């Protein structure tokens, strides 16, 4: 995937000066060896300069990991650790940081070989709070070398998302369409996250598109589109315009991202887009999103940011769908009941006109946009990508600032069922345990819009930690409660 960071985690071991330094040295070496034996060695950097016991050591270690190009940090408590120096290291490191601690190795070495990092983690967490430092601490942050290596591996996609957000620019075009007020959320919270936003007029985009007429690169892009679509290319007459639009967006990104390294786009496709541009941009949006440049529909800025987070976490293409319609009774009875362990209320259809990339569709057809064609000439609605979404595990999620300007999020894991949708657009039959209650007490009660981001695979654990790490209050992160756990707003007498 392009447009996402490569994470390099600096591992710095710390030691309290009344404990043997060799404990931290040997345990750090064992941790690094365990990681390299199982995962990509390029993910990590072992800081050899010193074991941090003092503020002077802290400065030396900080300079070393910076020089090595590390953009994420693991503070490893090989023993109890120096609570001030180790948290100052986290404070002055510009990037995501993680704290993890060594478990004791053997009952045969609990004298000079006992490190007490189990205790030291408590003091570290207290000092992090004193200094207002957001650090990632795993669910159970004390482990053997192999266990800590696994924890660091789980930290990598979390760090990738946090690093990406800190260097992200959102490029938007046009105001939100009429009657899509739900996608118009206060953007102040995005600035609080360090994200830059460039809002442009559709007229600016239209001018740039017209300036790309006759671009010498268009035939090459058309050829690539033809190869991707194959027999699904039902509207070949629009490919040249779509290629022209794709080049317009890519050139805009390069010319406008400025000092930022990563970009996502909040685009618009109606009500005037079709008649003026002469097509709909869905297929182009799908192609860019499939490469790692998320493009949301209906100028959904928080949707685009949500997609970018999922791309970083999953290192894969994502999509943005309407939480759209219920599954008909006869479809549930015929294709789901008794075959899958879901109630009818656990199921729904996720849909959008055609922004899901071809690699995430069972088969695809590039054709006209059915909803728009009900009121417009078909020829100006060409350019949407249709097909049933591939079955398999998914995570539905979203970051959102609602009307009261509080940053909120939700995460729910489920799957796309191998059930034919018998409908149009990019669409799938989704199943999420206890979806009915989640729909009522998280989505409706939390005032979330109809757009939800979809990551392919189960990434709920990492997404939940990303949202916490960027400052979403854990109480504001919704999830699909099991039947035994009531929601705060759920009527106990129902």
From TrEMBL:
Location of the L-fucose isomerase C-terminal domain: 351-472
Recorded superkingdom: Bacteria
GO biological process: fucose metabolic process
UniProt GO molecular function: L-fucose isomerase activity
SUPFAM superfamilies: FucI/AraA N-terminal and middle domains
GO CC annotations on file: cytoplasm
Organism (species): Candidatus Merdiplasma excrementigallinarum
The keyword Zinc-finger is annotated on this UniProt entry: no
The entry's keywords: Carbohydrate metabolism, Isomerase
The protein, known as: L-fucose/L-arabinose isomerase family protein
Pfam families, per the entry: Fucose_iso_C (PF02952)
Stretches that traverse the bilayer: none
PANTHER family assigned to the protein according to its UniProt record, in alphabetical order: FUCOSE ISOMERASE, L-FUCOSE ISOMERASE C-TERMINAL DOMAIN-CONTAINING PROTEIN
């Amino acid at each position: 995937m392009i447009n996402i960071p490569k994470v390099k985690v600096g591992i710095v071991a710390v030691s309290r000066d009344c404990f043997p330094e060799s404990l931290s040295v040997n345990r750090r070496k064992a941790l690094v060896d365990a990681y390299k034996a199982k995962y990509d060695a390029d993910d990590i950097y072992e800081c050899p300069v010193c074991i941090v016991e003092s503020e002077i050591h802290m400065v030396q270690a900080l300079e070393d990991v910076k020089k090595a190009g590390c953009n994420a940090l693991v503070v490893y408590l090989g023993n109890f650790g120096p609570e001030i120096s180790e948290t100052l290291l986290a404070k002055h490191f510009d990037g995501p940081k993680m704290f993890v601690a060594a478990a004791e190795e053997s009952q045969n070495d609990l004298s000079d070989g006992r490190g007490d990092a189990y205790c030291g983690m408590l003091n570290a967490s207290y000092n992090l709070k004193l200094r207002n430092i957001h650090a990632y601490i795993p669910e159970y942050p004390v482990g053997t070398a192999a266990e800590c290596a696994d924890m660091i591996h789980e930290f990598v996609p979390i760090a990738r998302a946090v690093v990406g957000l800190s260097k992200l620019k959102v490029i938007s075009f046009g105001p939100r369409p009429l009657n899509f007020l739900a996608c118009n959320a206060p953007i102040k919270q995005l600035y609080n996250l360090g994200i830059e936003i460039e809002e442009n007029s559709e007229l600016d985009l239209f001018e740039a598109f017209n300036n790309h007429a006759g671009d010498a690169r268009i035939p090459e892009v058309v050829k690539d589109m033809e190869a991707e679509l194959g027999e699904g290319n039902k509207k070949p007459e629009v490919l040249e315009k779509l290629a022209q639009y794709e080049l317009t967006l890519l050139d805009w990104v390069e010319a406008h991202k400025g000092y930022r390294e990563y970009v996502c786009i909040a685009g618009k496709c109606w009500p005037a887009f079709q008649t003026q541009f002469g097509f709909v941009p869905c297929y182009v949006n799908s192609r860019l999103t499939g490469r790692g440049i998320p493009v949301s529909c209906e100028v959904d800025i928080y949707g685009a940011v949500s997609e970018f987070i999922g791309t970083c976490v999953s290192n894969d293409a994502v999509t943005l769908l309407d939480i759209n319609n219920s599954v008909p009774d006869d479809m549930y009875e015929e294709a789901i009941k008794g075959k899958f362990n879901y109630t009818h209320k656990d199921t729904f259809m996720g849909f959008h006109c055609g922004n899901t990339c071809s690699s995430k569709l069972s088969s695809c057809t590039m054709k006209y946009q059915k909803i728009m064609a009900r009121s417009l000439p078909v020829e100006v609605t060409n350019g949407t990508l249709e097909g049933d979404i591939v079955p398999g595990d998914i995570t539905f999620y979203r970051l959102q600032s609602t009307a009261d300007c509080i940053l909120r999020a939700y995460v729910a894991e489920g799957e796309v069922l191998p059930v034919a949708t018998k409908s149009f657009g990019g669409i799938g039959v989704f199943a999420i345990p206890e979806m009915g209650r989640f729909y009522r007490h998280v989505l409706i009660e939390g005032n979330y819009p109809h757009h939800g981001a979809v990551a392919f695979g189960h990434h709920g654990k990492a997404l939940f930690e990303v949202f916490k790490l960027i400052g979403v209050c854990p109480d504001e992160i919704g999830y699909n409660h099991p039947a035994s756990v009531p929601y705060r707003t759920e009527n106990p007498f129902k």
